[in-house]
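A note from the maintainers: we've had questions about how concatenated examples are separated. There is no special marker in the raw files; a new sequence line simply starts the next protein. For clarity in this README we add a label.
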Amino acid sequence: MDIVYTQCNPVFIHQYALSKLRALGYRTAVCSNSVRNSVEVMMQRGGLSPYLELMVSNEDVRNGKPNPEMYTKAMSHFKLDPAECLIIEDNENGIKAAKAAGGNLLVVQDVMDVTLSNILGRIDEIEMELNQ
């Protein structure tokens, strides 16, 4: 837990992305294979908690990633169809879980790729695919 306190600091691009997405009417959640306390502390230390409507940890499900249960739990909470959801993932187990949940996927190399531009760009791609 010490690493969380020393390494988790607010990153403007992430705060901006989440605040703008919320302002645009998108609902946001985090689904993490970490224990609840770690997820909550990381989101608080990163200044992201105010922009998240839901946090799902490995303690909230029977099966963690690569099982899709975290994502289906979040989708159910929001009463959304998987096709209405964008899941951002950066690791193999998360990607497998996202695909199994049926949501749209944005694969990033690391957290610094989680930008408003990348997110809105992927949403535009999904909407263009739906309109074809």
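[label: protein 2]
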Amino acid sequence: MHRFMPAACILAATLLVSAHVQAQQPPPAYGPPINFETAKKVMAAAEAEAVKNNWALVITILDSGGNLVMAHRMDNAPLASIGISRGKARTAVDFKRPSKALEDGIAGGGAGLRLLSLHGAGVFVEGGVPIVVDGKIVGAIGASGAASGQDAQVAQAGANAAK
């Protein structure tokens, strides 16, 4: 279902991240791919949060297999944010956690720095959030174009709309 990363790399990275995020419960299992109607609700909520704050972003929604469902580049959003938002969403769905958890693992140094050696493993910057419906990961949303905390605020607003 997932491309590029061998299962061993994903497992190793997940174990490294888990060591840095011990207080959290195990991540939910993957569920069926997000449907189009739910993706539209998620996108609408994320866009509303960005517009409310006057942030020009790119917002990307992937399904539980990491496939593109929907993407929107708002007026004046940086072109580089197209790939970054997709990478943040991909990281969230592949690692079953917000991309911020991986960013924190790297920032903590030590064993967390090994995440940087996983070629093509993801975008380890805040702004990617899994989309969970009925306790299962059905996809992920990534946002890019503002400060990473603002990107995460928009992504979380979108993910919350799926519940």
